[in-house]
Design brief:
Strand content of chain B: under 5%
Mean pLDDT of chain B: 85
Structural class of chain A: mainly alpha
Number of strands of chain B: 0
Oligomer: heterodimer
Number of helices of chain A: 9
Distance between the termini of chain A: 31 Å
Shape of chain A: globular
Low-confidence stretches of chain B: none
Helix content of chain A: over 70%
Largest interface: A-B, 58 and 47 residues
Largest sheet of chain B: none
Distance between the termini of chain B: 41 Å
Chain lengths: 228, 119
């Protein structure tokens, strides 16, 4: 069977390679099409941000829903296992100082990436991931129990639900013609911080989702690590 | 050589996809199959990005005045891949948690032993 699978894979690769050689994918560069409308209709200077937060917002919404349900599944399946206890901090003082010094910087960098997603390379997904890795850094230095304390105080899980609600309500209010977020709503001057329609609101809410989700995945896997 | 140069990204992307497919078809360990799935995911992302690539193109951001839109790479595949990466991470985590559950139940990750799901 192994031989069969390798031959089938090789034949498939060969056919696709010939297909690639024979067909020329036309240079379908849509950037010039979008460029005309992005600055006029959206106000973001980052075209990718304009596409996933404006032109293809439903795409982002369902992506966030898929992400949420995947995390729900992870926490459901992992919660049945016994906990392995705290992730203990490293004993090395040098590591401690290096991590404690760099973790807040990483988190701040994540927040900056999140807030300026429409005027710089960045956005909700990368900002959330950077923030989550910063908190993971911190938990390596001070132990997972201390690092997770602010999460329980801030009720971050509830905040995650509100973020999803905010995205959904932005979309629902925006679909009506001349609705609250109708076209020409808060386009601003392209390049200014307050521009790009709902870019800041959506970036922050999607970023919170990705941040909490990423942190939850890392935290759950580390907390139940020894039961595997 | 020119062909190789022109289609470098496509060849790389399909190479990754087929390496992943081979792992999924041939390996019996569930963790390896999940790794294969992730390699396929990476290959698909690379393929989508390389479709929108323009030779010598810049990032699709109007970072300085006078920048021409024609010289930018296509922003649509980038926006698609941005979401695909996050979904890839979520699916990977879900698959791993399912694998842990299966291991707890059957005490093995070998798919031949888990109810003969595979040849």
């Amino acid at each position: 069977m192994k031989r069969f699978a390798s031959i089938a894979t090789l034949i498939g690769a060969g056919i696709l390679f010939i297909f690639i050689l024979m067909t020329r994918i036309p240079p379908m560069n849509s950037s010039s099409i979008y460029a005309k409308s992005v600055l006029r209709e959206d106000g973001s200077i980052n075209m990718v941000s304009a596409i996933y937060l404006d032109y293809r917002l439903y795409d982002s919404l369902f992506e966030v829903l898929v992400f949420t349900s995947a995390i729900l599944g992870v926490s459901y399946y992992i919660a049945h296992f016994p906990e392995a206890g705290e992730v203990f901090p490293s004993n090395s003082k040098l590591t401690f100082i290096a991590i404690v010094a760099s973790a807040p910087m990483v988190v701040c960098w994540g927040i900056y990436t999140l807030l300026t997603g429409h005027i710089s390379p960045g956005g909700a997904f990368s900002g959330g991931a950077i923030g989550a890795s910063g908190i993971l850094f911190l938990s390596l230095a001070i132990g997972s129990r201390k690092a997770e304390m602010p999460f329980h105080k801030m009720r971050l899980e509830a905040l995650e639900k509100y973020a999803l609600l905010l995205i959904a309500s932005y979309i629902v209010l925006g679909i009506f013609d001349k609705g609250l977020f109708s076209p020409l709503f808060w386009i601003g001057i392209p390049g200014a911080f307050l521009s790009g329609r709902g870019a800041i609101v959506l970036n922050v809410s999607i970023g919170i989702k990705v941040f909490v989700g990423g942190w939850a995945i890392l935290y759950l896997f580390s907390r139940h690590r020894e039961s595997v | 050589m020119n062909v190789l140069y022109d289609y470098m990204y496509y060849i790389g992307a399909f190479g990754l996809i087929f390496i992943g497919l081979y792992i999924i078809l041939v390996k019996h360990n569930l963790i390896r199959i999940i790794m294969g799935l992730n390699i396929v995911d990476t290959g698909v992302n690379l393929f989508l990005i390389s479709i929108g690539y323009v030779k010598g193109g810049t990032a699709p951001i109007f970072s300085r005045p006078g920048i021409k839109a024609g010289s930018m790479v296509d922003p649509v595949p980038q926006a698609l891949v941005l979401t695909a990466i996050v979904i890839g991470v979520a699916v990977l985590a879900l698959a791993l948690s399912l694998a842990i559950r299966l291991y707890q139940h059957y005490k093995t990750l070998d798919l031949r032993k888990i109810r003969r799901m595979k040849w």
